[in-house]
Amino acid sequence: xxxxxxxxxxxxxxxxxxxxxxxxxxxxxxxxxxxxxxxxxxxxxxxxxxxxxxxxxxxxxxxxxxxxxxxxxxxxxxxxxxxxxxxxxxxxxxxxxxxxxxxxxxxxxxxxxxxxxxxxxxxxxxxxxxxxxxxxxxxxxxxxxxxxxxxxxxxxxxxxxxxxxxxxxxxxxxxxxxxxxxxxxxxxxxxxxxxxxxxxxxxxxxxxxxxxxxxxxxxxxxxxxxxxxxxxxxxxxxxxxxxxxxxxxxxxxxxxxxxxxxxxxxxxxxxxxxxxxxxxxxxxxxxxxxxxxxxxxxxxxxxxxxxxxxxxxxxxxxxxxxxxxxxxxxxxxxxxxxxxxxxxxxxxxxxxxxxxxxxxxxxxxxxxxxxxxxxxxxxxxxxxxxxxxxxxxxxxxxxxxxxxxxxxxxxxxxxxxxxxxxxxxx
Length: 426
Ligand SMILES: [Zn+2]
Hints:
Mean pLDDT: 95
Strand order of the largest sheet: 1-2-6-3-7-15
Bound molecules: zinc ion
CATH superfamily of the largest domain: Zn peptidases
Strand content: 15-25%
Shape: elongated
Number of domains: 2
Radius of gyration: 24 Å
Number of helices: 12
Structural class: alpha/beta
CATH architecture of the largest domain: 3-Layer(aba) Sandwich
């Protein structure tokens, strides 16, 4: 007669794997899984899941299957041979088991200049209770927690009643082609937990983000004749001021208690500006690239319209810009917002598991960045939630790192989630 593992049993099983967990995460970090180069790391992860006896397959992200999907963003990285890992821990039936996806992304962002790092970005070094390296926090810690949670439960003799799917996807940082490929291929469950770095907060809602490019025209002339030229940089400056005002107004008019900072729900950032070629030439062209935040429950069409109208208003009031209107394009990452109701079963169960394993109720919080959550909620008809180890403030940084203790805690809560959500198999 099997007994469902209790809190103490789950915690002890995870604790006994602490060294394995550290070793596995370090090895994962040592695979430089930059966009388009995720495959070695994916094989390593797939091997681990296969060793645990999961039915492990490699699922390609094929451009032909994705390109007409409304949620598809072309990240410009060739698709050939970019495989996702999907591993099934088969449910044994019985009880009222519900299926669960534990999802994570293997791609990491570039390291910046490696000399700025204390150790190599791919060292996986351990310093002061933290594992360091690009991707350690975002989100190889989460992928590790997903896999080790299964391993820990297996050590207790637990078998789920309903299927658990572990997914490790490519291309999340640049638009989500990996998770979208799994959805297009028909992988579904009753809920998905994405173990992104949320500092173990339960995050049921994400803002969206739309990459845009703005072209501003001017008229070149020798700077000594400036009044007869038009500076594209100075025209852009006016447009930028209006966009900043728009960003503030959108936040003043929006309320959502899940966001800690009401002024930072859907930020707008200009991240690239290219203009001019000579100090004493009035610049005749400027190209700016940025990301325009989408508020939760706002449509992307509405967000695009808000920016376009803002730019039109500035142009209408300026004789030069009226005749030479700035040109706005949307390109690459186009992340919709996504949301799961806070009173839904997956949020309630996960929160209860967090409390059970860690001794206090979790904070519920909205996140300001795009993630694959929206693909599950908007395009797979599934409730989904972000919950995992690491602080997003440590993601994408020099000397990125994650606290080992937090990875262990996440592993316990995720193991508990599988037990409570999927049920004990017959
Ligand atoms: Zn991430």
